[in-house]
């Protein structure tokens, strides 16, 4: 990796809202690129049913996802800088928790949570960019998952159609495609200077 690429990512702070199939995989991708600091937020614990698509292991069942994710990321890169919050996000705490972030990855399952986070960031956090996902359930048609900029501070990933419903589950294959689209969009934003990179991101790494 070229030195200037490493510096750009090392200086960045990325918030990850939710550590399920999207967030747990986005976190791994950004850690492998040695992104400066990750803010990990989730209130839930690892369940057996998560293992079909989320980046956890059988012996981590029952642990908080934040703790399990942090453990896995440190196995990838021991020097990774993490800020960990075991909390349910809401419009009242999002601003403070992600105050340091340059980009925020929206990684929720439920549509109402997605909308809540996006609206809060766009209305209360000037200058922050959010990378969201809509439409990734099922299998097949990988090329229909695309990255679109729909607002100056909102990137949307997915096919916009394939929601979770009976007979159409979330699968590791399509969730993984969307998660890596999300990670790639975040890297592109940082590398192309489309967000103001925080100088604090290089501290403690």
Structure description:
By secondary structure, the protein is of the alpha/beta class. It has one domain (3-197): Rossmann fold. It is 33% helix and 17% strand. The protein has 6 helices and 7 strands; from the N terminus they run αβαβαβαβαβββα. The chain has helices spanning 3-10, 23-32, 65-76, 94-97, 111-124, 172-191, and strands at residues 13-17, 37-41, 81-85, 103-106, 129-133, 146-151, 154-158. A 7-stranded mixed sheet has the order 3-2-1-4-5-7-6, sandwiched between helices. The longest helix has 20 residues, at 172-191. The two termini are 17 Å apart. Residues 1-5 and 197-205 have low confidence and may be disordered.
SSE blueprint:
Blueprint: H1 3-10, E1 13-17, H2 23-32, E2 37-41, H3 65-76, E3 81-85, H4 94-97, E4 103-106, H5 111-124, E5 129-133, E6 146-151, E7 154-158, H6 172-191
Parallel strand pairs: 1-2, 1-4, 2-3, 4-5, 5-7
Antiparallel strand pairs: 6-7
Helix pairs in contact: 2-3, 2-6
Concise overview:
With 205 residues, this protein is of the alpha/beta class.
Q: How many individual domains?
A: 1
Q: How helical, in percent, are the residues?
A: 25-40%
| Overall form | globular
Number of helices: 6
- The CATH homologous superfamily is named NAD(P)-binding Rossmann-like Domain
CATH architecture: 3-Layer(aba) Sandwich
* Number of E-state strands: 7
Considering the chains and any ligands shown, give keywords for the structure.
disordered N terminus; alpha/beta; globular; disordered C terminus; 205 residues
């Amino acid at each position: 990796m070229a030195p200037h690429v490493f510096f750009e990512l090392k200086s960045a702070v990325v918030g990850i809202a939710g550590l399920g199939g999207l967030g747990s995989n986005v976190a791994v991708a950004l850690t492998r690129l040695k992104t400066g600091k990750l803010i990990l937020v989730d209130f839930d614990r690892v369940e057996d049913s998560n293992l079909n698509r989320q980046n956890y292991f059988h012996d981590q069942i029952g642990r908080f996802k934040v703790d399990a994710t942090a453990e896995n990321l440190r196995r990838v890169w021991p020097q990774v800088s993490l800020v960990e919050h075991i909390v349910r996000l809401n419009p009242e705490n999002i601003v403070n928790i992600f105050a340091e972030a340059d980009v925020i990855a929206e990684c929720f399952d439920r549509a109402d949570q997605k909308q809540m986070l996006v609206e809060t960031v766009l209305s209360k956090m000037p200058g922050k960019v959010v990378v969201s996902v809509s439409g990734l359930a099922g299998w097949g048609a990988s090329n229909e998952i695309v990255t679109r900029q729909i607002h100056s501070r909102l990137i949307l990933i997915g096919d916009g159609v394939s929601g979770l419903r009976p007979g159409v589950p979330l699968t590791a294959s399509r969730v993984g495609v969307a998660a890596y689209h999300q990670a790639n969009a975040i890297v592109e934003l940082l590398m192309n200077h489309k967000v103001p990179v925080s100088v604090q991101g290089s501290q403690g790494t």
